[in-house]
Every structure is written in C-alpha cells, then in structure tokens.
Specification:
Number of strands: 14
Shape: globular
Strand order of the largest sheet: 4-3-2-7-10-13-14
CATH topology: Rossmann fold
CATH architecture: 3-Layer(aba) Sandwich
CATH superfamily: NagB/RpiA/CoA transferase-like
Largest sheet: 7 strands, mixed
Number of helices: 6
Strand content: 15-25%
C-alpha cells in the first residue's frame, strides 16, 4: 500500500509534469509560422553578417569531438540566400584533410545519393536548385562519421524543419553517424511542431553556442 508521503511525491510530480506540458504548449510553434519567421529574417541578414557569423559557427564546430574525430564528413553546399555559408566550411575541411561527401539527388527514388567532393570545378546546379557533384554517386552510408544537416528551422530538442520532400529524413535513417545542424540563432526555437516520422538531430551549432539536443530530452 502506498504511503501518504509517496502519494504526495507522486501527486507533486503530476502537477509538475502538467506545468511543463503547459509551458511546452505556450512555446510550441507551428511549422508554417517557423518557416515564415526564418524566411523573413534570412531576407534581411546582410552578407557581411553571414560571413562573420559563419566563421564563429565553423570555429565552434571545429572544437567538437564529432568534427575532430570525423574522417568522412557528409555535408551540403548552401544554395539559398541567408544560409550559413557551408562553402567556407568545405574549404576549411579540405585544410584538415577530411574526405568531403556531398548529396546527389536521385529524382526517380526521391532521395539523396552520395558523391565525393572533387573540387569546385566539378560542382553543378541541378534542376531542383541544389549544388551537387557532376560525376559519381553511390548509396553506401556505412563509412560516414559526421553529417552536416541543412535546416530552415530547428528546435533545442533536435526537431528540424527542412525544405520539403523528406529527402534528408530518408537519408538520416540510413546511418548512426552524429547529425549536426549549423544555424543562426534566429533559426532556433524552443519547440517545433513535428511528427513521429521526423528524425531528430544530435547537435545544433550557432554563432553563440552549441546545443546538445539529447540533453534537452524528449520533445513534445
């Protein structure tokens, strides 16, 4: 039989959990609103600010164990205004001697394959507006040590809003490699509307901080 003290503790936990749930609901933002806010902010950010903040983000990323010990890094080339400049990151990683692997779109299967970065002269823009290698592609994700994941918006708990199509959700299911989003602070929210099929990222690196999403616990 439960004691009065145990019942009081249990009751207090229920009250606390209800308060937390109410707090989550207050800060939960619909995907459409998160998209609207970020697109607006991206349209306003000047190029010099992108350069300066990108450098801070790369410096923070370079200090993480995930980056230091990664030999094969799956990254993307930014293709939209107001994004973190991953071109600078790719150049930086070349200096570290890392093998850089890029997504290559497979329109038939609506998924990304992988192709090695062999120099900027081998990069072309596809029909979807993404930059990708012009030659070579395969589907083997077994040797990937780190994935830099694009996101329009992201929550402190690792919930991510992409650009539609679900290409990266399919890709992220194929690997256990750490998944990291590089983002400006205005892209980070407390809670974002999500579904059970969405794949969470492990870390978020901004110009101000590194967020370990697993420490923040299970999202709403």
């Amino acid at each position: 039989m439960i004691s009065k003290r145990e019942f009081a503790i249990y009751n207090q936990q229920l009250i606390s959990n209800k308060k937390i749930s109410r707090m989550k609901l207050k800060t939960l933002i619909p995907k459409s609103e998160a998209r609207r806010q970020v697109v607006q902010r991206r349209s306003e950010i000047p190029q010099h600010e992108i350069r300066n903040k990108t450098k801070l983000i790369i410096d923070r990323l370079a200090g993480t164990d995930e980056f230091i010990y990664a030999k094969n890094v799956y990254c993307y080339i930014n293709s939209r205004p107001g994004e973190v400049d991953t071109r600078s990151l790719i150049t930086y990683m070349e200096g570290w001697g890392k093998t850089i692997i890029l997504p290559k779109l497979n329109k038939q299967s609506k998924s990304f394959r992988r192709a090695y970065f062999l120099g900027w002269d081998k990069i072309v823009k596809n029909n979807e507006g993404y930059w990708e290698p012009s030659v070579g592609a395969d589907d083997d994700m077994s040797d990937i040590d780190l994935i830099i994941v694009p996101a329009l918006a992201v929550s402190k708990h690792g919930q991510r809003i992409g650009y539609g199509g679900g290409y990266y959700d399919k890709l992220l299911k194929q690997t256990f490699a750490p998944k990291v989003v590089l983002a400006f602070e205005f892209q980070v929210f407390d809670y974002i509307e999500s579904s059970v099929h969405d794949i969470r990222v492990d870390k978020i690196v901004t110009e101000r901080r590194i967020i370990n999403t697993r420490i923040n616990g299970t999202p709403l």
